[in-house]
Design a protein that fits this description.
Elements (H helix, E strand, L loop, with lengths): L13 E4 L26 E5 L7 E7 L1 H11 L8 E3 L5 E7 L11 E3 L12 E5 L4 E4 L11 E4 L7 E2 L2 H7 L1
Parallel strand pairs: 5-10
Antiparallel strand pairs: 1-2, 2-8, 3-5, 3-7, 4-5, 4-9, 6-7
Length: 170
C-alpha cells in the first residue's frame, strides 16, 4: 500500500483487513505483522498494537461518556498525538508510546458501564495493547464511511503516554 501518512510510521507493523470490515481474517495475524508495502490497496489496514509496533498503545474513545470518564479519572490535558476517527460523533483513537520497561506488565483493558457508572451502555473507553489491532485511514467501512486522520502522522509526533494514565493502567 502506498500511503504518504502511513509511510511516516516506520516502526509500526500492520495487518490486512478485508475492505468494509474492522477485523483481520487471516490466521495468526497477531503474531505475523506485515509491512506497509505488502498490503494491497484494495484492503483495509490495521496497526498491530503493543510490542509488535515498538510499544504503541491506542486509547479508544467510544462516545461522549468515554470522554467524561477520562476527564474525571485523570484531570489532565491530553497531549497532542496522532489521532484518527471512523467519522462517528465523539469516537476516535489516539496513539501513544509506552516505555519498554512497562511492556511486560500491561494488558488491554476496557472500561464499560459495568465497570464505571460514568460510562453509558453502548459506550466505553479502551486501553488497546498487544493482541489488538486498530483500523487506520484510509480504510473504508461497509456503510461507506472512511477512516480519517484528526492529527496525521505527517504533521504530529507520537506522544508518550502521560504518567498518570500509565500508572492507572498498571
Amino acid at each position: 500500500m502506498k500511503n504518504i501518512e502511513l509511510e511516516c510510521l516506520p516502526n509500526w507493523r500492520f495487518c490486512t483487513i478485508p475492505r468494509g470490515e474492522k477485523g483481520p481474517r487471516s490466521a495468526g495475524w497477531q503474531r505475523n505483522p506485515i509491512k506497509l508495502a505488502d498490503i494491497d490497496d484494495n484492503n483495509n489496514i490495521g496497526v498491530l498494537l503493543g510490542t509488535m509496533s515498538q510499544g504503541i498503545v491506542a486509547l479508544d474513545f467510544d462516545g461522549t461518556t468515554a470522554w467524561s470518564w477520562f476527564a474525571e479519572t485523570f484531570d489532565i490535558e491530553i497531549p497532542e498525538t496522532i489521532m484518527w476517527t471512523s467519522g462517528k460523533d465523539s469516537r476516535c483513537q489516539m496513539a501513544f508510546k509506552v516505555p519498554e520497561e512497562y511492556w511486560p506488565y500491561i494488558k488491554t483493558q476496557k472500561i464499560t458501564h459495568t465497570k464505571s457508572t460514568l460510562i453509558a451502555d453502548g459506550e466505553g473507553f479502551e486501553f488497546r495493547w498487544t493482541g489488538c489491532q486498530s483500523v487506520l485511514p484510509p480504510s473504508t467501512l461497509n456503510d461507506g464511511r472512511t477512516y480519517e486522520w484528526v492529527r496525521s502522522p505527517s504533521s504530529t509526533d507520537i506522544a508518550m503516554l502521560p504518567d498518570t494514565v500509565l500508572a492507572y493502567w498498571l
